[in-house]
Specification:
The chain is an alpha/beta fold. 42% of the residues lie in helices and 12% in strands. The strands form 3 sheets. The protein has a 6-stranded antiparallel beta sheet with strand order 1-2-3-4-8-9. The longest helix is centred in the C-terminal third of the chain and has 27 residues.
Length: 572
């Protein structure tokens, strides 16, 4: 019964700290509204709404949602530039409206039956209800094991769904649901000058990301993405943070110190002791599992930022997806080159007789891909007309055959996209936004919000949404981030050639600690082993002890994280 309803919000106060309590009720429009996120073009939208005769009571961006929707209807969501999960209840017409930003920066879950409709930015606030049946969604479990994240708009538990990014969902009084996208790709200008568009954003639009009534910090690495943001956003009061891995083969600290001799940067040192300490709290902070060891140093980083009383953090998520910075695109480029010159036979024979460590030069990793990577690459080169799903099996954590051995029950494994692997832009279009929303943004949102910190991502401004699709019209678009490098060079004279610095878990001391942790805490009684074979896990653990292959490390960490998450969230 839609007459029996409760709307609540836990607010992280960033703008108009004293007057912005949620939910807002606009009595003159009979609209309740709530917002998780930040609306960066608040000032311009406010002026448009004031022209309609509405008088604002606060300076909080949430207040514009009710009148904005009243005056502009569904078009209003396309007018918003920001990250948002929005809920509106129309008291007069008796229906709910949910909407989520076009990149899917903020999560928005819902549960819907004939008796109940519940929505929340936190899946946990829904599935921890006593009436919720925690039944594992097999498709989502497979997705997490293959790709480290859930690739569809679902959850690890059945009947818990997400509002699709860039869309509106309406629930009517009769229980009917209506869904539609609010952003139309065909509205983008085909003759747009991408270089000018990007430069224009950094000269004008990026200043919106500095607006706050609280302290702001920037996450810095030695790469072009964060340093470009820092060049435009850094002020005297801005705090700068970076993580320094004690045993990485490449030091971010030395490089950043070289770049910025006078800029104060707080380096968070991360070693095997902090790794063990961060395992449980990091996994517990997630509403749905992300099977990647990177969550452990991230958790420690945000713990320190919270202690430092910084409430807003600027991060560089999105640049790799939009400008083709990911290693898998460089691998694809190499494969297209091999196919174009009919070099498959020659390359296969060279790989067969060459030590597997040579493969590592073709993959943008510091770890050793080893025999697993070598076998996968040879298998892929044997496919005459590869599909996107074949390429996914090359770069995934567990490929389809490995999954069939790992899973206890015979679950039909969905063979991802059946489209031909025609070009890099086709591959990036099909995977880039999914990876961005459901892995990168979700990971950042879960950890930052766990510490009450708002994470802002300027590369996911509306300007970059159209740039992403326009760049992907180019069959072999540049994967070197040349546009960003040129702007950075022009702005601050920094010439950056990025190397990867990440936590090297294959370090002997770290391996001993993490393996000891698993052996002490895991047994065939753990809940995860009702779904995956304990003997297969033991085999992975045994092989991980003996090898420094990065794919073995990823398999081990996937099961480690899933085991802990299931223990904390499945059955009590």
């Amino acid at each position: 019964n839609i007459d029996k309803l409760t709307i609540g919000a836990t607010r992280l106060a960033i703008r108009d700290v004293t007057n912005g309590s949620q939910p807002f009720f606009n009595k003159e429009f009979n609209l309740y509204s709530s917002l998780n996120g930040e609306i960066y073009n608040y000032s311009s939208l406010r002026k448009l709404i004031e022209k309609k005769g509405y008088k604002f009571k606060t300076n909080c961006d949430t207040e514009i949602i009710g009148p904005g929707y009243y005056f502009f209807k569904d078009k209003f969501f396309n007018m918003i530039n920001g990250m948002f999960a929005i809920g509106i209840y129309d008291k007069k017409k008796k229906y709910f409206i949910l909407s989520r930003d076009r990149f899917g920066i903020k999560p928005l879950y819902f549960y819907h039956t004939n008796e109940k409709f519940i929505y929340s930015s936190s899946a946990k606030s829904i599935y921890e209800q006593s009436w919720f049946e925690k039944k594992i969604n097999n498709k989502s479990l497979i997705s997490v094991l293959k790709k480290r994240y859930i690739e569809n708009d679902e959850h690890i538990f059945e009947n818990l769904l997400q509002v699709k990014r860039g869309s509106i969902l309406k629930l009517y009084v009769d229980g009917g649901l209506k869904k539609n996208l609010f952003v139309k790709l065909n509205s983008f200008e085909k003759k747009l000058n991408i270089n000018d568009e990007v430069e224009d954003f950094f000269e004008k639009g990026i200043s919106n990301y500095n607006l706050a009534d609280v302290d702001i910090g920037i996450l810095l690495s030695s790469g072009v993405d964060s340093n470009l943001l820092s060049s435009y956003l850094s002020q005297k009061k801005t705090k700068n943070y970076s993580i320094n891995f004690s045993n990485s083969k490449f030091s971010e600290k030395s490089k950043l110190t070289e770049y910025y001799k006078e800029k104060k940067i707080k380096f968070i040192n991360y070693d095997h002791k902090k790794l063990i300490k961060s395992i449980l709290p990091a996994v517990k902070s997630f509403d749905s599992p992300i099977c990647d060891g990177v969550i452990f140093p991230m958790h420690e980083l945000f713990r320190v930022i919270k202690k430092d009383k910084t409430k807003v953090i600027i991060s560089g998520e999105g640049a790799d997806e939009i400008f083709g910075g990911y290693y898998y695109l460089k691998i694809a480029k190499l494969i297209f080159f091999i196919n174009k010159l009919w070099l498959n036979f020659l390359i296969k024979n060279i790989i067969k007789i060459t030590n597997h460590r040579v493969l590592n030069y073709f993959f943008n990793y510091q770890g050793n891909l080893g025999n697993i990577g070598k076998k996968r690459f040879l298998k892929f080169l044997n496919i005459k007309k590869p599909k996107i799903r074949d390429f996914e099996n090359l770069i995934t954590v567990f490929d389809d055959q490995e999954l069939e051995r790992l899973l206890i029950h015979s679950i039909p494994i969905r063979r991802s996209s059946n489209r031909n692997l025609m070009n890099i832009s086709d591959l990036n279009s099909s995977t880039g936004l999914n990876w961005l929303s459901k892995y990168n943004c979700f990971k950042l949102d879960q950890i930052s919000m766990n510490f009450g910190i708002e994470a802002r991502v300027p590369y996911l401004d509306n300007s970059f949404y159209k740039i992403f699709f326009l760049l992907n019209k180019n069959k072999f678009f540049n994967t070197s981030k040349k546009i960003l490098r040129n702007i950075l060079l022009k702005k601050s004279n920094l010439k950056i050639n990025k190397k990867i610095a990440f936590q090297n878990y294959t370090n002997l001391e770290k391996k001993r600690k993490i393996i000891k942790y698993a052996e002490k805490n895991f047994s065939d009684k753990n809940k995860i082993f009702k779904f995956i074979r304990f003997d297969e896990y033991k085999k992975i653990l045994r092989n991980y002890k003996l090898s420094d292959e990065i794919l073995l490390e990823k398999k081990f960490f996937s099961i480690l994280i899933l085991t802990i998450w299931f223990e904390k969230n499945l059955w009590k």
